[in-house]
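User: My instructor asked us to take a sequence, write out its structure as C-alpha cells, and then describe one feature of it. I'm not sure where to start. Here is the sequence I was given:
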Amino acid sequence: MARSTTTYVCQSCGATYGRWQGKCESCGAWNTIAEESVAATGVGGAPAKAGKTRGRAFALAGLDGVNDQAPRTETQVGELDRVFGGGLVKGSVILIGGDPGIGKSTLLIQASARLARMGHRVVYISGEEAVGQVRLRAERLGLTASPVELAAETNVEDIVATLSEGVTPRLVVIDSIQTMWTDSVESAPGTVSQVRSAAQVLIRFAKKSGAAVILVGHVTKDGQIAGPRVVEHMVDAVMSFEGEGGHHFRILRAVKNRFGPTDEIGVFEMTGKGLREVPNPSELFLAGRDLGAPGTAVFAGMEGTRPVLVEIQALVAPSTLGTPRRAVVGWDPARLSMVLAVLDAHCGVRLGGHDVYLNVAGGLRIAEPAADLAVAAALVSSLSGAVLPADAVYFGEVSLSGAVRPVAQAAARLKEAKKLGFTRAVVPEIARGETGETGLAVQAVTGLSTLVADIAASGVARERPKAAAGE
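Assistant: Let's start with the prediction itself. The C-alpha cells for your sequence are:
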C-alpha cells in the first residue's frame, strides 16, 4: 500500500507546513491551516516505489508539424467565443468562476447544447446536482432535444475512465471542481489537496486526449475563485462571470487566456429562457438615461476590440463631516482621488468640503484611464449645476500636470458614438488627427482647465436667459 503523509495546508492559498500554526505566513490569514493526509504518489498519480527508477526517453516534435484537427471549435455562442479568442482550443482547460446563481451552469448547458447539435460529443458532469435536476434546467431552456450526455459523478478516476471510452469528447464540463475527489488524497472533497489533485488528473486527460475541459469554480466573499491559486496557474484560461443582483445583464471577462486576449468581454442578458447574447452592449448601458440632469457624461470606452459607450454619473454635495465621503462604484477609487487632486490644484475646483459619489451606470466596471476626462466633466457638471450636452461623448487620460493625454483606438470610439446618434465628441488635442472621417464635431482639449472653463461658461450662458425671463 502507498504510504500516507500528514501535512498542514492553508485552505486559503494552498501553502503547506510541517506543523499546525494559527497564521499562514504566505497569505496572512488566520485559522485557515488544516491537517490533510496525502498518499505518497509517483509520476502520473501511481503509488511511489521504493528506490530510484530510471526515466523513460520520449520522442520530440518540431514546430512545423501539421495538426489533424481544426485549432478551434466554435460553440455558436458568439459572446462566449469572443472571450475564448475565437472558440475552444483542442486540449485546453478553462476555469470559470462566478457568484452563486449568476448563471454559470445556464451558460454552459446552453453552449453544450449548441455544440452537441453540431454533431460533436459533449459530456456534462455535475457534482452538485442530480441528473434529473440538470434535465429540469434543460427543459426550462428548451434544450431537451440536444444530444448532451449527462452524469452525476464526483470521482475523477471514474470520470476519466468513462470519458476514455468511445469517441473522444469535444467538450467536457465539470460542475464544479470543488466537488471532485481523487483516491490519491485522503481528505474531504473541497480541500486544497483534493481540488489541486483532481484538477491535475482532469488536465492530464485533456492534454492527452485533446478534449476541451471547462471547470466551474466557486468564489469567495471578495469575488476570488475559491481554492488554491496554483489551480489558476495550471489551467489555460480563467474566466470570471460577473453581474449585479439589481441588473439583468451578465458579463464574462477573461482574467487569463493562453490562447486569446484578456481584455475582451462577453455581454449576456438574463431572461426567462436563459442567457441571451447582447451584440451591442452600448444600447443596454445607455438605456433610460436622464438627458436633462447635471452630473452625467457619456464615456466612449474600449473593452478589448469592442467599443462600449457607458454613462458616468457623479453627485457632489456639501459635506457635514470633517472628512468628506468618497464613494465609487464601477471605477478605481485611487483614480478618482487623483482626478479630484488635479481639479483642485490646476483648475481651482475646490471639492475638499463636498461629498463625492461616482457611479458607472448599468453596473459595468471600467479599468482604463481613458475615463478620466468623462469623470472630470461629470464632477464639474454636478458641482456647477451645468447640464452637459446630451449628444456628446468624452474620453481622454488626465495627467498629474492637468494635461489631457491621448488614448488608443480613438477612431473606433467615435465610430461607435456616431452609430448611436451622438454628434459631438470631446477628445485630447493629439487625437484629433486620428479620428478620421467620422462625421462628428470634434472638440479637442489640451488641458483639463479648458474643459472646466467650457462647462462653467455653458452654465453661465444658460443662467442668463433664465434671469432675463425673470426680470
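For the description part of your assignment, you could build on this observation: Residues 92 and 292 are 50 Å apart (CA to CA). Try explaining in your own words what that tells you about the chain.
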